[in-house]
Design brief:
The chain is built from 5 helices and 11 strands, in the order H-H-E-E-E-E-H-H-H-E-E-E-E-E-E-E. The protein is an alpha+beta fold. It has one domain. Strands 4-3-2-1-11-10-9-8-7-6-5 form an 11-stranded antiparallel sheet, with helices on one face. The longest helix has 23 residues. The radius of gyration is 23 Å and the shape is globular. The termini are far apart. The C terminus is likely disordered.
């Protein structure tokens, strides 16, 4: 009888230890990543944001200009062995049109949906779904036409939408990449994301997740472009932190290698810093100037 009691106590003790170990076991990389996406869905996108986009380029002269009769706003790169002086653009973003007014000095350059001029989480979604040029005008017009047929009352504040559609585990395999430090100095943990299919249209490479709030503090995207002989490979890494009461992009680092017949012949790096960010309650209404067609970088 005494032996049976001791055996029973031993089994109970093992069960308690197993339960304690299970409770302390960290989630899998996929679970950790999905929890971060869930936290991201709760982030609010500001209705309006104004800021300075300070751009520094090495290996190319970079300008932002309207191109063609349709006034498409493009980044133009003139490749050369030089360092481009810092250029600053004043930007006013509005979430209702997901577009930005861009001004250099006192010269209004135009309006754009390019993701480099959108430091919100809506911009992240746009990059992952549509690439750095942002959502095509054809899709915007189709959505507007559908809204007229079945009008929906607008939400009081735009929130990040369809994040699972853009970043979910149905799109990416997720692997643990170990401890990391966020750009703001917070402790973080990194996961590697590998596109399950069509990697050209699913560019996310990795995410660093801030352990303080469970949201991504750094995302890296693959950049690629190819032609008959000349191609581009590289990446863009976007950093995030608290600005006011929002979790916003604070800067972007872009690296391009120009390749000829598969051989890297020139290196370009571009740094964009978002400074002086404010969140006004309104902006002057302006019509969006959009491209009809044209090549997007």
């Amino acid at each position: 009888m005494k032996k049976c009691s001791l055996l029973l106590l031993f089994i109970v003790a093992l069960a308690l230890v197993a339960r304690s170990v299970s409770a302390q076991t960290p989630p899998s990389a996929a679970q950790f990543y999905l929890a971060a996406l869930d936290a991201t869905k709760r982030l609010e996108v500001p209705a309006f944001a104004t800021y300075e986009a300070k751009i520094h380029a090495v290996g190319a002269q970079l300008t932002v200009e309207q191109v063609g009769a349709d006034k498409q706003l493009l980044f133009l790169e003139q490749i050369g062995p030089h360092e481009n002086p810092d250029t600053s653009y004043s930007v006013a973003y509005r979430s209702d049109t997901d577009s930005s007014n861009v001004t250099e000095g006192k010269k209004f350059l135009g309006q754009t949906r390019r993701t480099m001029f959108n430091p919100t989480w809506q911009g992240v979604y746009d990059w992952l779904m549509f690439g750095p040029a942002g959502e095509p005008e054809s899709a915007v017009k189709a959505r507007a036409a559908q809204a007229k047929l079945a009008p929906v009352a607008p939400a009081p504040k735009l929130k990040t939408i369809a994040i699972l559609k853009a970043m979910g585990s149905a799109i990416y395999h997720v692997r643990d990449a170990g401890a990391a430090v966020c750009p703001n100095g917070d402790p973080g943990h990194q996961v590697q994301t590998i596109a399950r299919r069509d990697p050209e249209h699913h560019p996310l490479l990795n995410a660093t997740i801030d352990l303080h709030n469970g949201v991504s503090c750094s995302l890296r995207f693959h950049i690629a472009g190819s032609g008959p002989m000349v191609g581009i490979t590289g990446y863009a890494e976007e950093h995030f932190g608290t600005v006011g009461s929002y979790w916003m992009a604070t800067d972007v680092h872009i690296v391009d290698d120009i390749r000829v017949a598969g051989i890297a012949v020139h290196h370009v790096s571009i740094d964009v810093a978002y400074t002086g960010m404010q969140f006004p309650t309104s902006l002057p209404a302006q019509e969006m100037v959009v491209p009809k067609n044209g090549v997007r970088r």
